[in-house]
Amino acid sequence: METTRGTDDAREPLPDDTPADRATDPDAPPKTGWRRWVMDTRPLRHRPFRRLWTSTTVTAVGSQLTAVAVPKQIYDITGSSAWVGYASFAGLLPLVVFALWGGVVADRMDRRTLMLVTNVGIAVTSLLFWAQSFAGLDSVPLLIVLLAAQQGFFGMNSPARNASIARLVPADELPAAGALQSTVAQTGMIVGPLLAGALIPVLGLPILYLADAIALCVTLWAVWRLPAMPPLKDLKDSGGGRSRAGWRDVVDGFRYITAHRVLLLSFLADIIAMVFGMPRALFPQLASHTYAPWGEGFALGLLFAAIPLGAVAGGLLSGTFSRARHHGLMVIVAVVAWGVAISGVGLSSSLWWAAAFLAVAGVADMVSMVFRGAILQSAATDDMRGRMQGVFTVVVAGGPRIADLLHGTAGSLLGPRTAVAAGGLLVAVAMLGLAVAVPDFRRYTA
């Protein structure tokens, strides 16, 4: 029997600010010609989602300014890349802890309120980053504390933000909404570092922190204009009590995942792709040895930029896939394509072929993100969406960091190209094996 998406016991009507913001007309004629290929922008017709997307667009660039400024300042103070790594790890722990707890809180309170509170926290830490840099304190412990605090606020914010999407657009537009969100996030990963590199020599680090804080003010305004999003159970029974968020609820979230194989496999698909197939730890070695004839600096920049460039291209052409109903099959195809493309990188002696394969991998990653996100939004009930998005945040943040350790070790033992090619092949084989072992996942439709 074909597996279909989960449904909520109750569903809040979509916010209806204007008649143009209503759910998509099912009788509307399909797009034809070139319009079928370009990004599906139907979710932007819903004013609340448009506000959420606008805030994401602004902060996608602003957050990358801080992401560049913090390691740059730490390196300037210490002259040590090790300290840069220590600071990154110090930020991972609060991100993991508060993403899991924040997912529970997002299921217990108004998600708009939670986004407002956490965005204020992020903005305050950005202002403190600016203040310490402007004052010339040059304190690594202070920078690490501020980074940990900011990552904690981000961990709390992300589940609420992502879990809100299903309350702002119709179910059939969830893949398109995911493509819109992911595209601007990937664009920020390209534009933000380039802008930071241009501003640092001219204006200095303090301006980067200040620009991020100003961008967060736009985010606060956009979130303030969102509709209230209390738990749906409160909409059904406004007189009912609300339980306090605790770590027992986090455990309940993991039990929910294990009881719903489609959700579990959507997480496993990302873990397989990122842990076995994300080769970024080997980019410096590839740039300095394999692709040295093209110039080490140029090669390194191109390798790092290729995946997000491919992801943006995939997002801009997401009209080709965002209307697909077979979400499970799309995830399987995307992860296998990612693995094959990564193997191609390892087999490439030419920098340009390696960059091309990485760009293809970026397209595949975009497709995977879109449909894994749609599965999380549709297969989970509203009272669990926050916790599912919390786990999603942890998987997305933790997988590449584990990959850095594995690929760095394998690259030292086997050589970088062999490690990359083997990792990509392992991704493809593992994902195909998972698809064969669990047919419910490949049959999952929206």
Structure characterization notes:
This protein is an all-alpha fold. The protein has helices at 47-78, 81-108, 111-135, 140-164, 174-203, 205-224, 232-236, 247-259, 261-277, 283-290, 296-316, 327-347, 351-379, 382-414, 416-437, 439-442. Helix 3 (111-135) runs antiparallel to helix 6 (205-224), helix 5 (174-203) packs antiparallel against helix 6 (205-224) and helix 9 (261-277) runs antiparallel to helix 15 (416-437). The longest helix is centred in the last third of the chain and has 33 residues, at 382-414. It starts with 46 loop residues before the first helix and ends with a helix. Residues 1-12, 16-29 and 235-242 have low confidence and may be disordered.
The share of residues in helices is over 70%
The unreliable regions are: 1-12, 16-29, 235-242
Structural shape: globular
The separation of the N and C termini measures: 14 Å
Q: In DSSP terms, counting alpha (H) and pi (I) runs of 4 or more, how many helices?
A: 16
Count of individual beta strands: 0
Label the structural class. mainly alpha
Residue-averaged pLDDT? 85
What's the alpha carbon Rg, rounded to whole Å? Answer: 22 Å
- Tell me what portion of residues adopts beta-strand conformation: under 5%
Give the topology string: H per helix, E per strand: HHHHHHHHHHHHHHHH
Q: Biggest sheet, in brief? A: none
